Amino acid sequence: MIEKSKPAAELSTASSEWLVTDQRGAFAMGTPQGFRTRKYHSFYSGVAGRSELNFLTDIELHWGEQALWPHIYSGNGTGGAAPVPIIHPAVSADFMQQPHPTWTWRLPEGILTLRVQARSPGGIALVFEFEMKPGGKPKPKSKVKAKSRSKAKVSSASALRAQLPLLRLRPFFALRDLHATGGQLWTLHRTSAGSAGGVVKITAGSGNEVHLGMKGPWHWQEEPLWYRNFFYPEESLRGYQDREDLHSAGEFKLDFNASRSSELTELGFLVSEDPADVTHYISSPEPEGKSPPSFAAQDFILTRPAGIVAGYPWFGEWGRDTFVSLPGLVAAWLGAGGSETEVWDWAHEVLGRWGEWIQKVGMLPNLIEKEGSHQWESSDATLWWCHSLAALWQLTLADREKARSRTSSRKITPGLDPSLEFQKRYVSLLNLAIDSIQAGRHPFLKLNADALLEVTEAHTTWMDARFEGAPVTPRTGVLPEINALWFQARCLQALWADEKSPYDSTENWQELERLGRAVLNSTHEEERPNRIFLHSIPLAPSLALQDEESLLRDFTQIYETLWTPVGLRTLEPKDSRYRPECCGSQEERDMAYHQGPAWGWLGGHFEMARSRLGKRGELQGRKTLARKMFDDKALERMPIRGHIAELFDAEAPFKPRGAPAQAWSLACLEEAKARKKFGLVNKLTALLAQRWLGRRERKSIRGASASSPEAGSSEPGKFKKKMKKKTLKISGAVGL
After folding, report:
1. Is 81 in the same domain as 22?
2. In whole angstroms, what is the distance from residue 202 CA to residue 699 CA?
3. CB–CB of 230/174 below 8 Å?
4. Which end of the chain is more exposed for a tag (fewer CB within 10 A), N or C?
5. At residue 86, does pLDDT exceed 80?
6. Are residues 427 and 504 both part of a single domain?
7. 408 inside domain
8. Distance from C-alpha of 393 to C-alpha of 397, rounded to nearest angstrom
9. Do 72 and 122 share a domain, yes or no?
10. What percent of the chain has pLDDT over 70?
11. Number of domains in the chain
12. Are residues 431 and 342 in the same domain?
């Protein structure tokens, strides 16, 4: 049972939440207890696509006169005392999160269940099932199977049915902005109806609307009411408006006594912005067949249009987040058994959809706005798009090995080589992105005399927090992650160039070597974690230059000052600006956001850098690097099962903060797992050795041929042996 009142601070959602998404931008989210603690909690909201609204915010549920679904109200203070939040009604239900959030009430007449699940082609359904139990309370069960039905035999079915109360559901459609509070007046318009259900349209005075498909003999009774003072303790803790009034135009009733059978039928509602979704739901006699592979990362995947939601519940489509996350989401989807064709088609759609901006304006937006006016304040989104090319091309190298294993000759034709096809698809766009930066068309980047990139605006990197317009973590000049990504893009351009291209010339490879040295030597910022990118990305400077000492030095320094079990701190503790907790008011959180708290996505890059230390890293690990990020104990503390939060307190117990489900936090960890599983570091190292050293040694041979006859025909095999030895040395130095 839940107590009738608790202090608001004790009702924080940090312990547990559930999440359901439909891969088209709609989601449902709440707590296992049922009551809402955030303004974002609902049974249907849209965070991407056509809208960003909270639609079906809540329900009131009764079995006869017994209330089943709890809410938190602000309460009334007496004698000048502050109001005490009240939970009403004080009831509880058994909750099971997987495979769908499901509540089970054990009633005297039987077992009632409610589950929330996404349905195909779109929308989110609330599905009720009732299992009849004659003669008193049913025996306890740990789980109710959706397809299991009790075929009770009773002497009088009509007498049994007469004992069943009405199931009553009162919906609260807020139809408001996702980030605001304040429900609107709304009305219900029936568009189609029948004995088995119907379709209705919910319309607010503002013009916002949503469609509701009903399955089962529900009866609508109009009874407009306002419910006052819903209380959201999590919003109170975050310094936002924490109270809301919600309107309900009436309630749905279901009379089991009127049913022809004492066994239950599936009864449900499906909410969607698209009327075609609800029509499909009503006409489908059974749920869709075998479900596709289920994995947590799928919650961030958008299929119409193809994209990535940066995080739930308040993030939309961000350029930087999309391409930090894309490689890991592809790896997770493939690892869960997804169709290779479906997964790669989706990845190509994401790359192509955003790549159109490179063709039009030479850069990517920072954020796609729903109204069509996008935000452009990002110095690195285009570079992260190039990063996705490198990381996904890395995955195609593993696919090439699979294709080779299917043939007896161990050779594959160019048309069936996935890595070559990937390269051909994107080489022109990659060159255009690089050319746009070199030509000075990017408003926040400029090349300096050393060919390094300088950031010109202080709030345009991933550490972009601002308060009242002023950057909290101003970063300009030559920055580690910006130039690591720039070096990677230039290397990928050279690797993809044909032998006649100037990008594959000896001079260009020599320029890249100078650039790589400059990146490693000129980008400092030791008090922050951003040097990890010099070693973690696929074509990292330390990998290309065989600089294992730089890798070990930075890795050890980061481990000793910034490591936590849930990510890397954003500032070392001895710094006077250090703030370990990101909590409190908007100002307090903005001032702390990148000034100490640990970020999960950095943990994934830490693990990717660790994998490059090979045996030497394992030896070092026996002394100082034994623990790894996100062990089972850390994952068990996440707010949403299977997901990783946006950031964490920098000190124990490392409490989750920010968005409870963040795409790049999970995706970077999945990318690290994939690199280790497929040995991707070795594959890229071999390619670099073949191209880079080949060009370097080719020039030395030409020079020796002109000045020394001994370097010519007298020892024709000497260089081949030497280059082979160097190639093997590179492959082994930083391999897994």
Report:
1. yes
2. 73
3. no
4. N
5. yes
6. yes
7. yes
8. 7
9. yes
10. 77
11. 2
12. yes
Q: What is the C-alpha to C-alpha distance for residues 554 and 570, in angstroms, rounded to an integer?
A: 15
Distance of CA 245 to the CA centre of its chain: 31
Looking at residue 278, its amino acid is V
Given a cut of 80, is residue 145 above it in pLDDT?
Answer: no
More confident position, 171 or 153: 171
Helix (H, G, I), strand (E, B) or coil at 351: helix
Burial 370-401 (b: 16+ CB within 10 A, else e): beeeeebebbbbbbbbbbbbbbbbbbbbbbbe
3-state DSSP call for residue 629? coil
- What residue type is assigned to position 141 of the chain? K
Q: Strand, helix or coil at 54?
A: strand
Nearest-5° Cα angle at 667, 664 to 670: 150
Whether 152 maps to a domain, the answer reads no
Contact criterion met (CB below 8 Å) for 249 and 243:
no
Q: Is residue 193 part of a domain?
A: yes
> Which residue(s) pair with 202 in the sheet?
188, 210
Residue 468 has pLDDT above 70, yes or no: yes
User: Domain end: 248, 283, 318, which one?
Assistant: 283
Place of tokens 């029948």: 194
Q: Is the separation of the CB atoms in 467 and 453 below 8 Å?
A: no
CATH code of residue 273:
2.70.98
Q: Which of 438, 512, 490, 538 is nearest to 695 (CA)?
A: 512
Of 642, 661, 683, at which residue does a domain stop? 683
**194 in the same domain as 239:** yes
Together in a domain, 214 and 84: yes
Q: How far apart are CA 43 and CA 20, in angstroms?
A: 9
Three-class SS of residue 193?
strand
Q: Can you tell me whether residue 647 is helix, strand or coil? A: strand
551, 609 Cβ separation under 8 angstroms: yes
- CATH label of the domain that carries residue 559: 1.50.10.10
User: Is the Cβ–Cβ distance between 75 and 85 less than 8 Å?
Assistant: yes
| Closest by CA position to 254, among listed 133, 130, 92 | 130
How does 655-687 read in b/e, with b if 16+ C-beta sit within 10 Å?
A: bbbbbbbbbbbbbbbbbbbbbeebbbbbbbbbb
Asked whether 312 and 29 are in contact (CB, 8 A), the reply is yes
Nearest in space to 130 (alpha carbons), one of 105, 150, 149, 111: 111
Say whether both 300 and 178 belong to one domain: no
Token look-up 């064709």 returns 341
CA atoms within 13 A of residue 643's CA, in its CB half-sphere: 31
Give residue 522's region: left, alpha or beta (phi > 0; psi -120 to 50). Answer: alpha
Mean pLDDT over the full length of the chain:
82
Q: Are 120 and 283 in contact (CB under 8 A)?
A: no
Dist CA 26 CA 211 (whole Å)? 13
Number of H helices, E strands in the chain: 20, 31
Beta bridge partners of 308: 301
Domain co-membership, 251 together with 326: no
What is the SS3 assignment for 99?
coil
In a domain? residue 22: yes
pLDDT tens profile 30-39: 999 999 999 9
CA 631/CA 317 separation, integer angstroms:
29
Sign of torsion over alpha carbons 468, 474, 477, 483: negative
Could you tell me the two tokens for 328? 């890991």
Domain that residue 365 falls in = 296-683
| Mean pLDDT on 634-645 | 89
Q: Which of 422, 550, 437, 398 is nearest to 495 (CA)?
A: 422
